[in-house]
Predict the 3D structure of the following.
Amino acid sequence: MSTGAEVVGAAAPVAAGVTPVATGVAGGVKAGVAAQADGSVPAIATSGLSKRFRGGQLAVDTLDLAVPQGAVFGFLGPNGSGKTTTIRMLLGLITPTAGGCRLFGETVDASRVSTLTRVGALIEGPAHYPYLTGRANLARYDAADRTADPATRARRIDRALEQVGLGSAAEKKAKNYSLGMKQRLGLACALLQPRDLLILDEPTNGLDPQGMREIRSLITSLAAQGTTVFLSSHLLDEIEQVCTDVAIMSRGRLVSQGSVTQLRAGQRARLTVTTPDPADAARVLAEQGGTDVQVAGHRVDCDAREDLAPDVVCAALVASGVRVLAFGVERPSLEDAFVALTGEGFDVAG
Amino acid sequence: MSQDEVLATATVVVAQTAARTEVQTATPAVAQTGVRTTGPAAAAPSSATPSPWRSVISRIGGTLLVNELRTMFRRNRNLVLLAALAAIPIAIGIAIKVSLRHHGQNAGGFLAQVSNNGLFLVFASLSLTLPIFLPMALGVVAGDSISGEASQGTLRYLLVAPVGRIRLLAVKGVSLVVFCLVSTAVVSLAALLTGLALFPTGPVTLLSGDSISMGAATVKAVWITLLVAASLLGLAALGLFVSTLTDTPIAAMAVATGVTILCGIMQVIPQLSAIQPWLYTAQWPSYADVLRDPVYFSGIEHNLEIQAGYVAVFTLAAWARLTTRDVSS
């Protein structure tokens, strides 16, 4: 569904086929359950989701989000762009002012939370009972889920602790945990049961590089088993490495939604030459058919179009006597796309 | 099933929970596919458990209630509170014993009786702890119940675990009732053991002048303990409500402990005579009427009515607040 979503320009909210989803589910929950088998019901679908806080601030503005089942979905946006408010609405912690959201086709709000047994979540950092051990913390959260089988509790807790590498610190009180250990414990809590959807807000926050790698490979392996992962992060490298789809928020609005490739496609790759003869190089690039040729000091670059073979261009440069110090195609990073969509400004949106 | 229903409607809280929550599915595998049993068939797992009491427990919170109680009574802060409560009767007993030996003096009221009969230390201790110490301990625990979870962020994780908000409120409410009972019982037991250890025992002279056996008097002591615990229920509900209002536990605790002092002040201002009978502290001393023969029920009944009223009003208020609140902590 959302795979068909186009990457659109800033400030235009994406209506990524959410309407047919909503009508399809209106047919009944049973239909929704049946439709899950072929993955036609999105793991997350919001339509016109909005939240205005009591102070009058519009934190989330008519958000239409569609996360297909099985996706590893990156959810990006500058600080204060409404990501966490959105996640809290998805989980029924905050009531939307307008619009609604469905997880696997079922509504979630403050009074209907049963679907959340299928969801593991890490929201705005972990939270624990400081006076309980790591294991006792997990036991408490597990006891809270009435679908969790008490008979398998100990085994599942052990497994979750192993998965996040906390096995040896299980009997330590949570108040003695380091930031990274707390983060791991929070992840363990999300992994207590096999989940269909993981909503992870900054999962690698506070982790050491080894921890980050482990968590990344954990996410990848969970996704390979069919778990949908909804990942909010500021680490764009991380998003680029693990995510198949992304959505970008800015000032409460969705400014872009699509696959990582599509998003990057919005930013053209550039063919760059570093040379002491910039004028000659610019001329040759233009002759070869390069468009948007720009010269900045010793650096000359142009759009790297498909028909512009780098090897041919390089040979032409050398043949024309241009002294080439460096030559290459610069692929735009997700960061470039992100900054292009959300602006350079450093100050948070008010 | 019908027995379950009768039990489930025993209290307002239980009835609400039973009506709103779906019944536990037996196998996690079924839960994973999102298929849930509802309606009559859903009663199967709970009726499969041997005792109806367990079924009620499972409805109002199941393993979460067990976990909540275990967490409550393993937390150091609460253990210190209970230890402090237990120390009060011990201190009183020792003080009376010592003052008897040195001065041969005697205090008034229940305290005067303690040196004649150790059982009176139970009544004396309850009459001394009920106005201040028991409400303070309860105020701390009740005020912290929801706001503490909110401030440490665990409220959001409980809610997405998921725990229905009504179920969470029911679990917190029931655990507060248990705390009322346990804290009062701790005072009574500590007093009973201290009294028996330090003072003579024998027939007990009631307030009405009759004399009853030690055994009969112990039964009365149990009743008094239960009545004192019940006297605290109104405050427990009030504390629970205040606790849903804020993310700052210290504020909720201050209100929940301070309001008893406020009631005490209002009780002695003559201009407030119109509302005095409806303060939750109004009939707190009524438990002493158990020590009459025949038992004088009017004050006790009034006290229980007041407590039931406070529980109903503040439980509903807490329900209204918690179920509509944005959890952004």
Q: What stands out?
A: The longest helix of chain B spans residues 165-198.
